[in-house]
Automatic annotation (TrEMBL):
SUPFAM superfamilies: Nucleic acid-binding proteins, S-adenosyl-L-methionine-dependent methyltransferases
Purpose: Catalyzes the formation of 5-methyl-uridine at position 1939 (m5U1939) in 23S rRNA.
Residue intervals of the TRAM domain: 32-91
Similarity field: Belongs to the class I-like SAM-binding methyltransferase superfamily. RNA M5U methyltransferase family. RlmD subfamily.
Active site: residue positions: 412
Gene name as annotated: rlmD
This protein's name: 23S rRNA (uracil(1939)-C(5))-methyltransferase RlmD
Length: 454
């Protein structure tokens, strides 16, 4: 990396802070002075999982934007707190061997990625260490395993914001440091077909009056190809949709228009993706795992860790349309799959019937509430949970009472996983396997899989 490249990245951060301080000055006129905090020489000892440096001076931590572990920087303190300070690197005196030039030209502004300035192996090492820190209160096996896939081009779905300001359309993602939308002409974490579709769609919309009537764009790539949902913020006449509909047809893109009054597209478009050689139908705006490659590896690993046999009766909690339930039903005697959203439950039933799996029972239930008797009285041998970020605390007493021999927990939020695992450990389980799953490379998101054994 050349010296110019280094300084341009640091300059951006400095500009960003200047903007923030301008709005700060408006709010508090008494502080209407340029920032004159001294420049400090800092050695960066660590990196937060969000990609900021951590320095320690006399026992006090300073978080340094624009620096990573192993670097020496000149930094300006922008906020002094009782517990920690915040600073901005204004000059790097020594680069970390883990630093690389971000691939995406929007990285400094766009809030979509946090770690592109670190090489991929350093990113994964950072995520593992961070996960181990989140699990510090738990007794863990000596080794944490890892699921990793391609570092770019992995996202099979994304939501892109649209905003028109002073007759200028901004189409892209939220900024790192504000709610503003960063105008993005290409996004390299998107699956390549989505990148192409996005570029074509964006250039059409940039020259069209339609853009002022759109709230956001959803992009999806699955085994049927590319699907685009255009969320209208104001009604668009059918005649004004013709040109885009024709573009979509000629580009083999399924284009769906979501009316301002609709929560979901009215067409209820049924799509499908493949996992474990099973076709899973879902509705275009339903949850599916974002990273195809990691999802396949994750399901395969879950099957291997659970080592199911015909004797097993498995409870699949937060099952969606059956991403884990169907693969488990191929191997176990019976699967009881539970999901709150009725339409996903119906989709799960359709998926099971199309795969000729008659040993899955899909149940619609809100797992934060008292569960129905069918679940409370189930005789199970194993359980799999894949809850949303809030975790599954409310259901854990019931789960413990059901006495599974094994619980496999898939999590998108390490802190609720740590909390829930602590509860399970207090109730007689021990952690036998842990895995860091890099579902979202280049970002600070970390997913985890944990196996607990009675
Ligand atoms: C992280 S997704 C996992 C879905 C599925 N296991 C998969 O791999 O595709 C979490 C699922 O939990 C469902 N969910 C969220 N809150 C719930 C609740 N309180 N009770 C039951 N299901 C819930 C969501 O609708 C979603 O399908
Ligand atoms: S989300 Fe896309 S546009 Fe934003 S920084 Fe990441 S790769 Fe670039």
């Amino acid at each position: 990396m050349g010296a110019n490249e280094v300084s341009s990245s640091v300059n951006f951060i400095a500009r960003d802070v200047t903007l923030k301080n301008r709005s700060h000055r408006r709010a508090r006129p008494s502080q209407n002075k340029p920032i004159s905090s001294p420049i400090r020489l800092l050695s960066i000892e660590d990196t937060t999982h969000e990609g900021h440096g951590v320095a320690r001076e006399n026992g006090k931590v300073t978080f340094v934007a624009g620096a990573i572990s192993g670097e020496r920087v000149e930094a300006r303190i922008v906020k002094e707190g009782r517990q920690f300070n915040q600073a901005i690197a204004v000059k790097r005196l020594q680069d970390s061997p883990d630093r690389i030039l971000p691939t995406c030209p929007h990285f400094e502004q766009c809030g979509g990625c946090q770690l592109q300035h670190m090489n991929i192996s350093a990113q994964r090492h950072l995520k593992e260490n961070w996960l181990a820190g989140q699990f510090r209160k738990l007794s863990l096996p000596a080794e944490m395993s890892r699921l990793e896939g391609q570092p770019f081009g992995y996202r099979r779905r994304a939501r892109i914001s649209v905003f028109v300001k002073n007759n200028h359309a901004q189409i892209g993602f939220r900024a790192k440091s504000s709610n503003e939308i960063v105008d993005i002409d290409q996004c390299q974490v998107l699956e390549p077909f989505l990148q192409d579709t996005y570029q074509a769609l964006r250039s059409y919309l940039k020259g069209s009056a339609l853009v002022a009537k759109l709230g956001h764009i959803e992009l999806l790539y699955d085994n049927q190809g590319v699907c685009v949902v255009l969320r209208q913020s104001r009604d668009i006449q059918d005649a004004d949709k013709v040109a885009l509909n024709e573009w979509a047809k000629s580009s083999s893109v399924t284009l769906l228009w979501q009316a301002p009054s609709e929560n979901k597209v009215s067409q209820h478009a049924v799509r499908h993706y493949v996992v474990d050689d099973l076709a899973l139908n879902f509705q275009a705006q339903d949850f599916i795992q974002v990273n195809t490659q990691i999802n396949e590896a994750m399901v395969e690993q879950a099957m291997s860790w659970l080592a199911l046999s015909e004797d097993d009766v498995v409870l699949d909690l937060f099952c969606g349309a059956g991403n884990f339930s169907l693969p488990m039903a191929k191997r176990a005697g019976h699967v009881l799959a539970v999901e709150a959203i009725e339409t996903m439950v119906e989709m799960g039933r359709l998926n099971a019937s199309q795969a000729h799996l008659d040993n899955i029972e899909f149940i619609a239930a809100d797992l934060t509430q008292s569960p129905p008797n069918r679940i409370k009285k189930a005789k199970i041998t194993k359980a799999l949970l894949d809850p949303p970020r809030a975790g599954a605390l409310e259901f854990l007493p019931t789960l413990v009472r059901l006495k599974p021999q094994q619980i496999l927990y898939v999590s998108c939020n390490a802190s609720t996983l740590a909390r829930d695992a602590e509860y399970l450990i207090e109730n007689g389980f021990r952690v036998t396997k842990v895995c860091m799953m890099d579902m979202f490379p280049q970002t600070s998101h970390v997913e985890a899989m944990m196996l607990l054994q009675k």
